Structure formats: structure tokens, C-alpha cells
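User: what does the whole thing look like in 3D?
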Amino acid sequence: MIDLSRPALDVAPHLLGAIIRHGPVSVRITEVEAYMGLVDPASHAFNGPGGRAAVMFGPPGRLYVYLSYGIHHCINVICSPDGVASGVLLRAGEVVGGNQIVRDRRGPKAPDRKLASGPGNLGQALGVELADSGMALALDGFAPPTDGTSSDWSLEAPSAPVAARITTRIGISKNAETPWRFIIPGEPTVSGRRH
DNA sequence: CTTACGATTGCCT
DNA sequence: GGCAATCGTAAGG
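Assistant: Here's the predicted 3D structure for the full assembly of 195 residues, as C-alpha cells:
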């Protein structure tokens, strides 16, 4: 069981190899980035708990979903204790369940390895919407909460430790030199640069 | 109220 | 490698 009440920077490498599921679709995570809230100018939570990132200041184990460039819905797993903001952006993965549904969502032109490669593509593969922001993940088969934050999302820790390579984050202008991106070496589903 | 901007992607040259 | 698409937010008047 992954302890999501720790800071995102500590949690991020442990999410590599984990399985996130939404309904019939399951994805094995191969690329993530940590966003560290109030101490990270690149984080949507940098300016405090107002606005779209307010949910990041809530309890860990929920989703923070945002719209990128008016088109793409990107998924974060919220970390740190209630009242502290940090989160892990899920950037890429390998589709391991619901392959036909993902193919229908992503269209016929996408190569298999790109079905969930890149944060927008991963979100589309999992069928995430803005309304999923704040929803709770059921962890490792444990029952989801009964407080209204439950939907059909779950997260399973990897069965064995997974190798991680650390790099700088992708697509940001602030705090861009900080090495808070984690990838599984050699994974063909990783988006962007591999070092 | 008005305007500018992305934690991106895919198509074009 | 360059760049347009597209819309919820955030910033500005």
C-alpha cells in the first residue's frame, strides 16, 4: 500500500508500475511528475487554496483534474496530509485493461504505445472529466469512502519494486530545472525525452 | 466584463 | 522543428 499522506516528491517514484483503473480501463503507470504546492512555483497550488487547485489542499488519495489548453484533461493523485498541498501528475502509462474502449476513445491512428502516452492522452484513455476532480481512489482493493467522493476509480501498488530514472519536468517555465520527473527506464510508453 | 494564458497534442513543412 | 486549436481559469481594467 502506497502512503499517499507523504509529500508528492516521496510518493512519485512509488507510483511507477502502479495500476490506475477507471471503470473497465486499467493503465500501468510509467511516467510521473511531482508538484509540491506552496513551495513549487510550477504547481497550480502555488498561490494557495483558491481556485481550481483547492482540492489539492484536501485529503490525500483523491484526484485533481485540470483542463490543459482547452482540450486535454490531466490527472493528479493528491498527496500530503489534509491541509497541505502536493500531487503527482500522471504523465504516461501502458494500457493493461479495457484495450478496445481505449482504442475507440483514442482513434485508429494512435500507435499502441501512444494510447496513454502523455498526460492528455492518458486522461483521454481513462475517460476522465473535470467532474472527477476531488473523487477518491479505492486503494489496493480496500473499500472506497462513503462520503460522496467515491466513483469508479482505484489504484493498486506494484507487486514488486520498479526501477526509476529521475529527470527534469516537461512543459513548464517556472522551477523548470528541478528534477522532479520519474520514468521507468526503457519503457516505450514514456512521453517526450527519455533522459 | 475583457483579455491572455497554458503541467498539450497532432499535423504541417 | 514550427505552429494552430480550444476553453476553463486567472489576471487586468
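In plain terms: Strands of chain A lie at 19-22, 25-35, 63-68, 72-79, 86-97, 136-139, 150-156, 165-167, 181-183. DSSP finds three helices and nine strands in chain A.
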